[in-house]
Amino acid sequence: MNIKIKALVLFSGGQDSATCLAWALSRFDHVETVGFDYEQRHMVEMQCRMDVLAHIKAEFPQWAPKMGKDHIIDIPALGGISETSLTRDIDIDDTGDGLPNTFVPGRNLIFLNFAAAVAYNRGITQLVAGMCEADFSGYPDCRKETLDAAMKAINLGMDADYSLSTPLMHLSKAGAWKLAEDLGGKALVDLIVQKSHTCYTGERGDLHAWGHGCGACPACELRANGWANYVTGTFNR
Q1: Angle at 61 between CA 58 and CA 63, to 5 degrees
Q2: pLDDT per position as a tens digit, 70-117
Q3: Rounded distance between C-alpha atoms, residue 101 and residue 103, angstroms
Q4: Which among 199, 193, 139, 191 has a CA at the least distance from the CA of 169?
Q5: Three-class secondary structure assignment of 12-47
Q6: pLDDT at residue 96 in the model
Q7: What dihedral do alpha carbons 74, 132, 88, 54 form, nearest 10°?
Q8: pLDDT at 183
Q9: Burial code of 102-116, b = ≥16 C-beta within 10 A, e = fewer?
Q10: Which residues are CB-neighbours of 43 under 8 A, at least 6 positions away?
Q11: Which pLDDT value is given to residue 89?
């Protein structure tokens, strides 16, 4: 009997999650997506994620039949309790304890628990997410060790056997661009540049070579530097 393997992608609408979506579509038989509205400052990503989904369906006919339901989870409580520059209109800065104030405590752990709950009801066992240890900010909830522990707890608590794939875990941002190219060629790279959103301030503004954004926040700087290294073939930076 042919058993379809289903995956659920944690999909924000940014560069990393768009690349992870393409990665999942190239590997699994059926792919659903889940996004989270936590009253983030860059709320524009919620619209951008819909644009990315629509354009992937239109521009990649080999993937379109695999694309299933998109889920939106509203968790305003996370934004309400998070005194961060991603949930408040405050300057992006260091906190003094080695982390930038863009760190939303518990965010990825909460996202994983909600994603697993969605997967439980959808008969999905494969979760895919864009966490990355190579990210400049050093968020503790992006570390493989953290995610492995979280998945162990989820599997115990749900008496399930979920697997979490993090295709970008050990890639630089330039490496993420290269992975997108390998998966979908220039068409996918162009789609991510034009339609995805990564800027922390929620600024769309002008279209830069690397995409829309304010150009000054850490997310924009990381994305721009990654693009510069990608176009010069320097994928380990």
Answers
A1: 105
A2: 999 999 898 888 888 878 888 777 766 777 888 888 899 999 999 999
A3: 5
A4: 139
A5: CCCHHHHHHHHHHHCCCCEEEEEEEECCCCCCHHHH
A6: 63
A7: -50
A8: 98
A9: bbbbebbbbbbeebb
A10: 37, 202
A11: 82
Dmax of the chain from CA atoms? 57
> What are the structure tokens assigned to 63, written together?
């993937």
pLDDT bucket at 228, cuts 50 / 70 / 90: very high
CA atoms of 167 and 165, how far apart (whole Å): 6
Q: List, in sequence order, every residue forming a beta bridge with 74; answer none if it has no partner.
A: 37
End-to-end CA distance of the chain: 45
Band (2; pLDDT cuts 50, 70, 90): low
pLDDT in tens, 124-158: 999 999 999 876 567 889 999 999 999 999 999 99
Give Cβ neighbours of residue 7 (< 8 Å, ≥ 6 apart): 24, 27, 28, 30, 31, 32, 124, 126, 127, 128, 165
In CATH, what number does 6-231 get? 3.40.50.620
Instruction: Give the whole-angstrom CA distance, residue 172 versus residue 158.
Output: 33
Q: Specify the DSSP element, H or E, that contains 70.
A: strand 67-74
